[in-house]
Amino acid sequence: MAEERPVDIPASLVSALRGAKHVAVLTGAGVSAESGLPTFRDPMTGLWAKYRPEDLATPEAFARDPRLVWEWYEWRRGLVAAARPNPGHLALAEMERRVPRFTLLTQNVDGLHQRAGSQKVVELHGNITRSKCFEEEHPVESWPATGVPPRCPRCGSPLRPDVVWFGESLPAAAVSAAREAVETCDLFFSIGTSGMVQPAASFCHWAGARGAMVVIINPDVSNFASGSQVLVQGASGRVLPALLEKAWPGSGTIHVE
Ligand code: BV8
After folding, report:
1. Fewer Cβ in 10 A, N or C end of the chain?
2. pLDDT tens, position by position, 67-110
3. In this predicted model, what pLDDT tens digit does every residue of 169-225 receive, in sequence order?
4. pLDDT tens, position by position, 104-136
5. Taking a C-beta distance cutoff of 8 angstroms, is the pair 95, 242 a contact?
6. Could you tell me which residues come within 8 angstroms of residue 190 by beta carbon, excluding any fewer than 6 positions away?
7. How far is residue 105 from each of residues 41, 152, 212, 249, measured CA to CA in Å?
8. Averaged over 149-170, what is the pLDDT?
9. Rounded to the nearest whole angstrom, what is the distance from the C-alpha of residue 249 to the centroid of ligand 1?
10. What is the average pLDDT score of the chain?
């Protein structure tokens, strides 16, 4: 296998991380790619090859074909259950332990940050491992194993995954936690996200406009305007442990669970 290029991490970023008072991090599907979970940009495979996630992750798709959408989420839940946190997730949990204040804003619905040990996680788009009543929105943890999708034991309406679909508002508590983090952080990371989905895609611009240092970590930095942003090209599972190691020698040797 070709020798992997060393990760190029600017010294300015290492000293900013060491001296940061409040680090805010936005993560996207790319952070879970090295755990084997397909990103939204990856073409879907098998049964789902002919669909686009944007066409399935909507209330309209569920109303049109609840069985299809429920089965898509069941397939993804299987992938999530088989996945494990990767060194990028573990490095973010370590970073949280090393800085005075840390907020992890994730667009991901796979729960891998929590499984890696991150505590201060704000789930902007919900969590695929939870289900809720379609009509009344209350969480439902168990249901009779009949019907696809299963029915709410309380009111009989279909169950749906507890995620935010396109066209749905983000949970109010998540939005206010995100706003507070963007407004008070002095270092903002945007990691493993294509920056296509609003409102999360605007967070790095708001943080930068306030004077926070904004760092983009992505194997493909071509479509990020450099300008005042610090661009670190590479996979998060390699970049983040390397960054931790430079900031706090010995902390980067993270082992997968
Ligand atoms: C909202 C949960 C107010 C579900 C998700 C018209 C009508 C209605 C709304 C809109 C509209 N036009 C625009 C909107 C707003 C809309 C939006 O942004 N649409 C986009 C498509 C234009 N947003 C919304 O609807 C949001 N709500 O705005 O509420 C409102 C309400 C009503 C009407 C109007 C406004 C809700 C958005 C939440 C949608 N739910 N997920 C589920 O998962 O099933 S979004 C879902 O897709 C993910 O959560 C994620 O956020 C997004 C995918 O983005 P990424 O995470 O960035 O992943 P992606 O694959 O794109 O990129 C991966 C990146 O990783 C790449 O850059 C790649 O290079 C990199 N990478 C790859 N490998 C690695 C790596 N990086 C690091 N390491 C590696 N190893």
Report:
1. N
2. 999 999 999 999 999 999 999 999 999 999 999 999 999 999 99
3. 999 999 999 999 999 999 999 999 999 999 999 999 999 999 999 999 999 998 887
4. 999 999 999 999 999 999 999 999 999 999 999
5. no
6. 26, 28, 203, 204, 214, 215, 216, 217, 218
7. 20, 30, 16, 26
8. 96
9. 35
10. 93
Cα–chain center distance at 188? 15
Whether residue 223 has its Cβ less than 6 Å from ligand 1: no
Q: Report the phi/psi class of residue 228: left, alpha or beta, with left for phi > 0 and alpha for psi in -120 to 50.
A: alpha
Tokens in use for 44? 């879907």
Are 206 and 24 in contact by the 8 Å Cβ rule? The answer is no
Take residue 184 and report the two structure tokens written for it.
């008070």
- The minimum-distance atom of ligand 1 relative to the CA of 41 is 60
Ligand 1 site, residue 54, Cβ cutoff 6 A: yes
Please enumerate in sequence order all residues whose Cβ is within 8 A of that of 184, keeping only pairs 6 or more positions apart, or say none.
22
CATH number attached to the domain at 8-36+85-125+170-257? 3.40.50.1220
Domain 38-82+128-163 class?
alpha beta
Q: Residue 161 contacts by C-beta under 8 Å, 6 or more apart in sequence?
A: 70, 73, 109, 126, 128, 130, 131, 132
Phi, psi for 95 (deg, rounded to 5): -60, -40
Question: What are the domain boundaries of the chain?
Answer: 8-36+85-125+170-257, 38-82+128-163
125: Cβ below 6 Å to ligand 1?
yes
